[in-house]
Amino acid sequence: MARSPEPGVWRGGWLACARTRPSPNFDARPQNACVDLIVLHSISLPPGAYGTGATAALFLNQLDWDAHPYYAQIRGLRVSSHFFITRKGVLWQFVDADQRAWHAGASHWRLRGRCNDDAVGVELEGLEGECFEPAQYATLLCLFDALRTRYPVRYVAGHEHIAPARKNDPGSGFDWELLSRHCAGSGILLAPTVRR
Description:
The protein has a single domain (10-193), classed as 3-Layer(aba) Sandwich (Lysozyme-like), CATH 3.40.80.10. Helices cover 18% and strands 20% of the residues. The protein contains 4 helices and 13 strands. The strands form 4 sheets. Strands 3-7-6-11-5-12-13 form a 7-stranded mixed sheet. The chain has a two-stranded antiparallel ribbon with strand order 1-2. Strands 4-8 form a two-stranded antiparallel ribbon. β9 and β10 (112-113) form a beta hairpin. The termini are far apart. The mean pLDDT is 94. One of its GO terms (biological process) is cell wall organization.
């Protein structure tokens, strides 16, 4: 059983209950960045295969590009996310949340571009359009609560909302209604319910 994040238990920008594997793919946030956005993604490598360890390898620049034909499409990619939630609900952290992870790419939300500057990236192990596991949602909701103890979170968007011409994740299988109920009364605005 996965350990759920406990709100407020931080060591700097590292969540104490997360398993950590520091990625080299990050840099400093701009000086006046206000971390008020959570961006949700889905990822599996190769697509639709779970528990392979390839996502962690990608974030750590250790992916064997020749291990699967799909990897030719992403060869040399240098990306990261702050958090990754496995199908079993295990929470991994790859980048200090006070730093800028490289997860959003060219993006725009809240009348601002460069969403990496002031967002926390959360990857869910999954495939666009497919459903996610109850254990993933349980971990995600606890992670939200923990993030809100440290950052002034006001917005939640999917990669599909901040980069609609390029991305489709987390996709139609993600339960935005569950997240909406969890955030009710918090003042947090979810992308499917607001205009850009």
